[in-house]
Amino acid sequence: MLDPKFLEEIGSRISAAIAASPAADIEKNIRALLTSGFARLDLITREEFDIQAQVLQRTREKLKALEARLDRLENPPPPEP
Asked: Whole-model pTM?
């Protein structure tokens, strides 16, 4: 049977080899590139989007109420005889 220490040593050597390889640098560079690209896109989070959607909905409701009030003020019902 294989010795667990042997397997741990092989795993640590593989990890060290990968960390020292150009793959780690490539991953770091790609992450930095993607981060700067997303920053330039001026993206917002879903939470920010949902908050703004709620604000817009409340604004529409207020506008509708104000339009109805203005209509009642500009066009009052005729007086009853």
From this structure: 0.49
